[in-house]
Amino acid sequence: MSTETTSQRPSSLADIYISFTLLALQGFGGVLAVVQRELVERKRWLTMEEFVEDWAVAQILPGPNVVNLSLMIGHRYFGLPGAMAALAGMLSIPLLIVLMLAIVYAQFAQYPQVVGALRGMGAVTAGLIIATALKLVPALKNNPLGRTTALLFSALCFTGIALLRLPLAYILLALGTVTCLLTYRRLK
């Protein structure tokens, strides 16, 4: 765990709900970059190390990563009511928007401009994810495996999933087992 402490905390359940609603609306389609910036840099509810640790746990839980993270943060500060407020914030307004967009998309899906716009949005999202990953690299200095080993496992994971097209479950099982064993040995 980080030696650094957070300097802020959410003031109320309404703060949790509104904050996660705004996060969900800002990062529509991919919120990792937005969540990291807002929770660590702007609101300071988490340190960078806490964010990396919580994000790692959120990724291995079933369901959307950022929803898992919102539940963990809401619960950390306000227990079950905080978790429910964070979940409602992540899902309520975005759900309404998605339903409205689905209705609109059904009317315009055949136009090449719409298809091109969606491809462009996909490229922007990929760029945001890469930029966020680069911002998170300094937090690896406190990782028990060390920055170099952690980056090596990240590269192996990327190679297995993106280039070799191996199933995510196999990659997580294989690399997750090895990294857990290595971490255990280094901590022991």
Task: Write up this protein.
This protein is mostly helical and 188 residues long. The protein has a domain at 1-109. The protein has 7 helices and no strands.
Counted by DSSP, the helix tally is 7
Low-confidence stretches: none
Radius of gyration: 18 Å
Strand content: under 5%
Structural class: mainly alpha
Major sheet characteristics:
none
Number of strands: 0
The first-to-last residue Cα distance is: 16 Å
Helical fraction equals over 70%
Give the oligomeric state of the chains in this entry, treating copies of one chain as homo and distinct chains as hetero: single chain
Order of helices and strands: HHHHHHH
Q: What form results from the Cα inertia axes?
A: globular
Average pLDDT over all residues: 87
Short description:
The chain has 188 residues and is mainly alpha-helical. It has 7 helices and no strands. The longest helix is centred in the middle third of the chain and has 44 residues, at 65-108.
Name its key features.
77% helix, single chain, globular, 188 residues, mainly alpha
Write the layout of secondary structure elements.
Blueprint: H1 13-26, H2 32-42, H3 48-60, H4 65-108, H5 112-136, H6 147-163, H7 168-187
